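Problem: given the chain below (106 residues), write out its structure.
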Amino acid sequence: EARKNQLLQKYEGRMAGKHGAARVQEAVLILCEEGYMAECCPLKPGTYRITEHNCAIAHIARDYPQVCHSELCFLAQMLGAEVQRDLHALKGDSECSYLVQFPARP
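Solution.
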């Protein structure tokens, strides 16, 4: 929780004024800077997949899997979107990936 809050504070300025695809692209840059080898692809309007080809916290997550939930919450809060994990390296997948759904804009 403390790490999540620290990262949110560290990167909040980079998200200011960005929406949708721009937020996802900035999040991918941030994840890469944090060691995740991330990329994104749009799926449909307002929906994206973020894939992490490397887990920067794998050595911790093996013993403390709750950090994976904290990472999911970090992404959701940073993006301002609903985020669901659809692949999870800790559960045997080759990578972690997240489906990102932004609320419909009026």
